[in-house]
Design goal:
This protein is mainly alpha-helical. The chain contains 14 helices and no strands. Helix 4 (86-105) packs antiparallel against helix 6 and helix 7 (142-163) packs antiparallel against helix 8 (167-195).
């Protein structure tokens, strides 16, 4: 089958959400400690593979559970479109998650055996996002999952592995970055849930948009985008220097695009 279908199934537009937390952690580690490219690259590769594996699993389970129908708005999905056989997608999902776990093993010398728990949880949650008996994404827990894993886990663990002993002194700075990364990644999910609200409510998908209505997630979207701006303000207050305020230049644009004025 053509490689382009696998590339589409990997959803490359979503990969920056997996890369940004690790890059932020690396930037902070490079500022406050001796930057080591090995754990940085391993963390980056692990994060990207977990994202791709989750995307593959989502493609497969959305098809199997009937979530991808002709009424669906948005990019075409590989299995639902007939580009990739369901069995092939199953095997690819398992292979990508297995590869991610193997990459994660390379981080053990930098953090210890407890990282195996992080790796197992990352794979399990990636699978359970749309798979298993209680899919997180179908039961209104997707937002929390993304906020925790794309923020807290991705940034804090990556920073710990890259900064070493400096983590003790700079963990709160990393926590601010974790909030920003998690909030912005969750905002992407909120956009998707708002877009799919009309079709999701016809099935058994109980996203927050379905549970509480589109108005609720519009508020959620505004809070996440604007709340992420607290990170640069906090870092500036903690003495990181004026350049950390540069993201605030996007605030008027974000306020306009999210129609915050009408929401308030």
């Amino acid at each position: 089958m053509p490689l382009k279908y696998w590339l589409l199934a990997a959803r490359p537009k979503t990969l920056p959400a997996a890369a940004v937390p690790v890059v932020l952690a690396g930037a902070l580690a490079g500022e406050v400690a001796d930057f080591d490219p090995v754990p940085f690259l391993l963390c980056l590769l692990f994060s990207l593979l977990i994202q791709i594996g989750t995307n593959f699993a989502n493609d497969y389970f959305d098809f199997v559970k009937g979530a991808d129908t002709d009424e669906r708005i948005g990019p075409a999905r590989a299995v639902a479109s007939g580009w990739i056989a369901p069995s092939a997608m199953q095997r690819a999902t398992a292979a990508v998650f297995a590869l991610a776990f193997m990459v994660g093993l390379g981080l053990l010398p930098y953090g210890g055996w407890w990282l195996i728990v992080v790796g197992v949880l990352s794979v399990a949650c990636g699978y359970a996002y749309t798979g298993g008996p209680y899919p997180l994404g179908y039961n209104g827990l997707g937002d929390i999952f993304v906020l925790i894993f794309f923020g807290g886990v991705a940034v804090m663990v990556s920073f710990y592995l890259q900064a070493g002993a400096a983590w003790i002194q700079w963990w709160f700075h990393a926590a601010l970055l974790a909030w920003a990364a998690g909030a912005l990644a969750t905002a992407i999910l909120v956009v998707n849930n708002r877009r799919d609200w009309s079709t999701d409510k016809k099935g058994w998908q109980r996203t927050l948009a379905v549970r509480f209505g589109p108005r609720f997630v519009e508020w959620e979207y505004a809070v996440l985008l604007l709340g992420a701006q607290l990170a640069p303000l906090g870092l500036w207050y903690l003495g990181m220097g004026n350049p950390v305020l540069l993201p605030l230049m996007l605030l008027p644009f974000r306020a306009t695009r999210t129609e915050v004025a009408s929401l308030l």
